[in-house]
Specification:
Layout (H helix, E strand, L loop, with lengths): L5 E9 L5 E10 L4 E5 L6 H8 L7 E6 L12 E4 L11 H11 L4 H14 L15 H13 L5 E5 L7 H18 L2 E6 L2 H7 L2 E6 L4 E7 L15 H9 L2 H13 L1 H4 L2
Parallel strand pairs: 3-7, 3-8, 5-6, 6-7
Antiparallel strand pairs: 1-2, 1-4, 8-9
Helix pairs in contact: 2-3, 2-4, 3-4, 7-8
This protein binds adenosine-5'-triphosphate and magnesium ion (MG).
């Protein structure tokens, strides 16, 4: 892999409580790659993501986020998405999306066009003046995504962003996320509990195990069609196909095996 965007080498984290949340984790993510971190609760997924985001300090190892695609001279920042939408309840949708631009010194007037374009691209045109309490859970996550994307990050770090949503909303957002990722040439590291979500989204699935938290294996999950993984691949037809066999089924089975407790303790 030539000059990875995210590079993690031998990273460990021992909390003051003595808990070893992460041991000797190494990972490289190339520009434009969509990588899932998949594993059971407590295996250190959030800890690893938070270290990469600079929100937590590692107690061992090194990491680097280049946040700069090879063809761009300007360094763009990385964006982080938490499990919930974490919107400001007192601010309108537009003002919530404005936040990263505001922090970068852009006035509301100057940011208006970018905010509107971003809201349009996540399917929320016309909701600029609405408040979070007036939105559904899926719409709130769309605002949260718009806020993460409005500053045009080249790297997006996502910690189970859709875990609280119903399955249909989640599938729809998964599909849209793939489209946005492709359109913006995003590099994405995506934490999930869901084997299905990991297989739907990621080109590579990094499987983690607990006690201590560690990377147990990495699975390649190449798309069937080069340009697009979409809902069509994962609807009832695909589930049936998964039961019958084929690459998706094999990837699911391998990942499920890797996640089984017997395997995880080896
Ligand atoms: N601030 C902290 N202080 C002490 N221990 C912590 C802290 N944060 C996490 N841990 C511990 O580190 C381990 C890994 O936690 P982490 O949140 O990274 O897991 P996770 O894989 O994201 O789990 P989940 O899927 O439930 O979100 C757990 O045992 C947790 O209790
Ligand atoms: Mg977590």
């Amino acid at each position: 892999m030539s000059s990875p965007v995210i590079s993690v080498e031998g990273v460990g984290k021992r909390f003051d409580s003595g808990t070893v949340a992460l041991a000797d984790a190494s990972l490289r993510v190339a520009h434009g790659e969509f990588v899932a971190l998949l594993g059971p609760s407590g295996c250190g997924k959030s800890t690893l993501l938070r270290i990469i985001a600079g929100l937590e300090r590692p107690s061992a190892g090194r990491f680097e986020v280049a946040a700069r695609p090879p063809h761009r001279a300007v360094c763009r920042r990385s964006g982080f998405m938490f499990q919930g939408p974490t919107l400001m309840p007192w601010a309108t949708v537009a003002d919530n999306v404005w936040l990263p631009l505001r922090l970068a010194g852009q006035s509301r007037a100057r940011a208006r066009d970018a905010i509107q374009a971003q809201l349009r691209s996540v399917g929320l045109a016309g909701f600029e003046g609405a408040f979070p309490r007036e939105l559904s859970g899926g719409m709130k996550m769309r605002v949260s995504i718009a806020r993460a994307l409005v500053a045009q990050p080249s790297v997006l770090l996502m910690d189970e962003p859709f875990a609280a949503l119903d399955e249909m909303t989640r599938i729809r957002l998964n599909e849209d996320l793939l489209a946005w990722a492709q359109a913006s040439h995003l590099t994405i590291l995506f934490v999930t509990h869901s084997v299905f979500e990991a297989v739907t989204l990621a080109q590579r699935i990094v499987v983690m195990a607990a006690n201590p938290g560690r990377i147990s294996q990495t699975l390649d999950n190449p798309p069937r069609r080069p340009a697009r993984r979409g809902l069509a691949r994962f609807g009832p037809t695909s589930r049936a196909a998964a039961r019958r066999g084929g690459p998706l089924s094999q990837a699911l089975r391998r990942t499920a095996e890797a996640l089984s407790p017997a395997r995880a303790t080896r």
